[in-house]
Design a protein that fits this description.
This protein has about 200 residues and is of the alpha+beta class. About 30% of the residues lie in helices and about 35% in strands. The structure holds coenzyme A. This is GNAT family N-acetyltransferase.
Length: about 200
Amino acid sequence: MYTCKGYIPELETPRLKLRRMTRQDAPEIYRCWSDREVTRFMNISPMTSVEEAEEMIGFLNDMAEIDDAIRWGIVDKSTGRLMGSCGYNSWQIKGSYRGEIGYEIHKPYWRKGYMTEALKAILTFGFETMRLNRIEGLVDHRNDGSSALLASLGFTREGLLRQVQHTASGFKDMQMYSLLYEEWQKGDKNHAAPI
Ligand SMILES: CC(C)(COP(=O)(O)OP(=O)(O)OC[C@H]1O[C@@H](n2cnc3c(N)ncnc32)[C@H](O)[C@@H]1OP(=O)(O)O)[C@@H](O)C(=O)NCCC(=O)NCCS
């Protein structure tokens, strides 16, 4: 049964390296996490200091230690720049073999296919290494970009979960998307390989 116990393996795609973030990454990821347009449909408020980003990185790595979440930084291999992050907000093996993904990338990098590439890598990891059977994405019903991204990856929109999340602006309805192992197996899965 999969446990990560704090180990966040590097994953590689043609253009990207996905790796564990460290506190030294805080100034760069802060640019992304402080941008109102990026955080608009996420369950965090835009950050206002680099220290908050440092704390978040520490928190995410701590969550990996206790198998509650696993988050990779998304690095452009050609420049070494950290563009965003993605990973599993949660997973549950016993009784369901499912996990929920989360992701964001800074605005200058939007619509260049980067998140498609990054998500294919973590889907491969989720299905092949974590042995998940069902991967979920919870998307704000107004977040057209994220909905279109998941649809392009073969996810099915299952329906609206009412007031399923609580954020600084109150309870939020979210669309539930999912991709099953048997569906993913039929598609193109040759996008990630451990380094
Ligand atoms: C949603 C997000 C992750 C997409 O990342 P990205 O790297 O731009 O996505 P890609 O370039 O791989 O897009 C793949 C496909 O998804 C769809 N898509 C992505 N962004 C879209 C947008 N803003 N509007 C409509 N379709 C969009 C398109 O079909 C796109 O293919 P195309 O560019 O060939 O038409 C990015 O906009 C983002 O970080 N947004 C803010 C954070 C966020 O909302 N996270 C998700 C929370 S659920």
